Amino acid sequence: MSTGFFDGISKVAYEGPNSDNPLAFKHYNPDEVVMGKRMEDHLRFAAAWWHSFAWEGGDPFGGLTFERPWHPQDNMERAKLKADVAFEMFDILNVPFFCWHDADIRPEQGSYEGNLRTLEEITDYICGKMETSKTKCLWGTANMFSHRRWMAGASTNPDPEVFAFAAATVKSCMDATHKMGGANYVLWGGREGYETLLNTDLGQELDHMGRFLNMVVDYKHKIGFKGTILVEPKPQEPSKHQYDYDAATCIGFLRKYGLENEVKLNLEQGHAILAGHSFEHELAVAAAEGMLGSIDMNRNDYQSGWDTDQFPNNVPETALAYYHVLKSGGFSTGGTNFDSKLRRQSLDAEDLIAGHIGGMDVCARGLKAAAAMLEDGGLEKALSDRYAGWETEGAKAMLNSDLDSITQRVLAEGVNPQPRSGRQEILENYVNKFV
C-alpha cells in the first residue's frame, strides 16, 4: 500500500537529452554499455537515508523547515513509515542501493539496550522490504557524533565508558549491515579529533582509534562479513582538527596500525574541498595506494565555508573523478552514494526526486566523458611521454645507486638539464573536448 508521499510521481524513465520532462533521465540510461559494462553496474548509485529522509531542513542558523509525515522521528511507527517512503523512492528512481546510519533508521532511546532493540526491529522490517525490492544495502554505519554522549569523540573519547558504548554500537550496526547483505561497512567519524590540545592526549587517542578499528576488522572476520571496511576522511566537521583529515592522513594512519590490507577509503567530494583539495586529488591519492573503495558524490558551495552537501552539478569535476575511478579498475564492493540533501526551501516530494535525477544525470555524463578520455588515451600518452626518461636503463640504475655515484656521473657527463614544458594548458584543453 502506498504511503501517499510520492502521489502523482511515476517511475523515472530514461528519455534522452532532448526530453523536456523534469522528472526523466536525460543522460542516465542504466542499460547503456560503457567500456564493456552497463552504466548501472559502473556507477552503483545509492541513496542516503539520512539526507533524503532523516534530515529536517535545518542549518547552523535555523531549525526544521521540512514537515514530513514521519516527523518527529521519535517512535517505531514513524521509523517504519520512513522506511516505507524510502523504498517507494528507491522504486521510483530504480536506484540499486541505499546507505544508512543507525540514527537514521531507528529512534534514539537513550540507552544501548533500547537502541539495540529498536535497531534490530527496524533491521527486520527493512529486510522484509528488501525481499520485494531490487534495492540492496551498499553500506551501513553508526552515527557517533549527533548525540551529546559523543561530544568528546567515540573511540577517541577520554572516558572509557564512551569507548565501550561506541564498541557495542558499532557491533550492532555491523550485525545489522551483515543481516541486510551490505556490501561494505563504514566508520564515519565526526568527533574523532579535538577542540584544543590543552585537554587532549593526541598520541593516546590515536592509539585508541587504531585499536578500535582493529577490533572492527577482527569482528568482521568473526561473523563472516564479506564486505569491505571503509573509513571516510572528513576535516573540520565539526571538530577543530579531526584525525581522519584527508586521504593521505588516513592512509598513513592505516599503515601505522597495520590495517592497510584490511581497510579502504570512502571519499566525499565535499570533504575534499574542506581539506583544501580537489575530489580528483583525493581519488588519485587513494587509487595510487590501492585504497579507493567507494565515494560520496556531493558538493559544497564554494562561497560557503561549511559542508553544504548539495547534489552534484559540475560535469567537468565529475568526469575527472570518474576518470580516476575507472583508471583504478572501477568499483568492486563500493559505489556512488548521494550524501546530498535538498536546499531548505525545496520542500516538495518532487524536489527530492528531481535532486536525485539531476545528480544521476551529471554522474552519467561524467562517467561517459571519463570513459571516452581513457579510450582515447591522450592523458595516458602525455604521462608516458613526460616520464619516458625513467624507462631508460641508466635512470632505473640510478634509483639503486647512491649520492656519490650520481654526483660522479653528473661531473663526468656534464649533466645540465633544461626544463621542459608541463603542457598544462594543452592538457586542460584536451579534457574540455570531452566535457
TrEMBL record:
What is the active site of this protein?
A: H101, D104
Q: Which domain of life is it from?
A: Bacteria
Q: State the top-level EC class.
A: isomerase
Q: Which residues bind Mg(2+) 2?
A: E268, H271, D307, D309
Its recorded reaction(s) are: alpha-D-xylose = alpha-D-xylulofuranose
Q: How is the cofactor bound?
A: Binds 2 magnesium ions per subunit.
Q: What is its EC number?
A: 5.3.1.5
Give the CC-aspect GO terms.
Answer: cytoplasm
Q: Please give the cofactor(s) recorded in the UniProt entry for this protein.
A: Mg(2+)
Location relative to the cell: Cytoplasm
Keywords, sorted A to Z: Carbohydrate metabolism, Cytoplasm, Isomerase, Magnesium, Metal-binding, Xylose metabolism
Annotated GO MF terms: magnesium ion binding; xylose isomerase activity
Question: What name is this protein filed under?
Answer: Xylose isomerase
